[in-house]
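Hi there. Long-time user, first ticket. I'm pasting a complex I've been working with (about 556 residues overall). I'd like to know whether the download I got is complete or cut off, because the file seemed smaller than I expected. Thanks.
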Amino acid sequence: MNSRGTTGFFFVLPLLLGVVAFMVVPAVTAVGLSFCQWSLTAAPEWVGGLNYQSLLGRNSLQPDPLFCQALFNTLVISLVVPVQVGGSFVLACFLNHRSGWRRFLRLVVFIPTLVSPIALYIMWRAMFNCDVGLLARLLMLVGIDSPLWLDDPAWSKPAVMLVLLWEGVGGFQMLFFLAGLRQIPEQLHDMARLDGLGMGYRLKDIYWPWLKSLVGFNLCLGFLGAVQGGFEVAYILTGGGPLRSTTTLSYFMFENSFQWQRLGVGAAVGMIMFLLVLPLIVVRGRRKTHG
Amino acid sequence: MKKRTLGLIVYFILLMLPIYWMLNMSLRTNADILSVFSLYPRHFTFENYMKIFTDASWYSGYINSIIYVSLNTVISLATALPAAYAFSRYRFIGDGQMFFWLLTNRMAPAAVFLLPFFQLYSTVGLIDTHIAVALAHCLFNVPLAVWILEGFMSGVPKEIDETAYIDGYSFPRFFTTIFIPLIRSGVGVTAFFCFMFSWVELLFARTLTTTSAKPIAAIMTRTVSASGLDWGLLSAAGILTIVPGALVIWFVRNHMAKGFAMGRV
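Hi, the file is complete. Here it is re-exported in full:
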């Protein structure tokens, strides 16, 4: 079987070369760059842990307040993930029938995933806008004074979370749940119907045992996306403002690297983001190898 | 059953409301949008669309996006097809670890790779080319492609390979004339995902290009930072970004659910 072993390797070779050139080398470079001082004009210069010290603080140095704020914002905004997962589950239950117009709807739920996020966020800017916005008008109709949304630091985070919720319910999480629901044997539902089980019992005894690993998977992917993503939304929807209230870690990294010419600090922020999600990757990996 | 239908209708309205609003604004002039509040366009105008189709600084963005997205789809499929075949047909040293490692790579923050890519491409002079963006997007598309294709290929019985060899097929001929047609819906679904993820990505596409390969997304952000937005024009540009994705999803609609059922979630 030795020849088979080599044939297998031969097929994976293009992939392996690509992985080395575009994953391993850049990953090592990323670690190295985070220990360097680097502006676009001058070559990278080794400064040791200085970037990390300026961000996290050490001895006499205070932690960077801007970094702390970005971290806080990212964590608060990522609280929307469990709501997204719950919404996707409910939607998958609604769509889990084979009638014609539901098949059509199953395509429609992909629209937020299909549209370029730029277009989406510009569209939401229009929705939130006080002059041309639909949201303010609708709230006025029911007699509520609309908040300023994206112009008010207190309302900007909820606004961003609302957009992420709109975007995240449906799409892939929903599709994963739909595939999971299909795997539940029909007999279980029949038995529940015969026994007259209520919705609460059905959730606990039928859905949960079959779908719990899927819930974990979706939460994991959701948090991963929320912690490392959030660039587009900050860049287009809010510009990180008002008063930096929606500056996420990835936007902070972008600012450092390409606006303030502190590429070394940017790389350090990237490494910290990676360390933040590392536990999730490890937990997820354990699951995968065990079954 | 009634409750379900009602829930779906509410969801559908909430989903389509912002998109309808964008369509509404794209068919009105900016002055009209700012002065009158209207739920539907009273004075239809295609001015905004005309501007995008005639102004090179706008339509070149769409062309650039389509070029690098297609390049990315081709490269991803070309590397993932043989690799997925190896994972599904051969046992070799470290295959399990490698497959798992690919999946975790998909979860690693793409942002970490941004600066190294920037440095790498600056060194080899690839900045502001279509191929630079296409290669950068392979970072997350190739692992996904391998994962989906492997699921489809494992569904094809091994006996088919063996029968073909006995019948005197060479490997390349077998692979292209028998095997790929057998998993064509898998290839379609994979191409769709590569296309879509590459189409909506902004961070790499924006940072690795400056002028000649600038994607439509970056062109739209240019007008965002300027004071006084042209809402009508931006909405029209936004509506147009939906079109390619919608076309692709229409072509693979029948394979979508299959693609997920066969993949190993």
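A couple of notes from our side: The mean pLDDT of chain A is 81. The beta strands of chain A are 36-37, 45-46.
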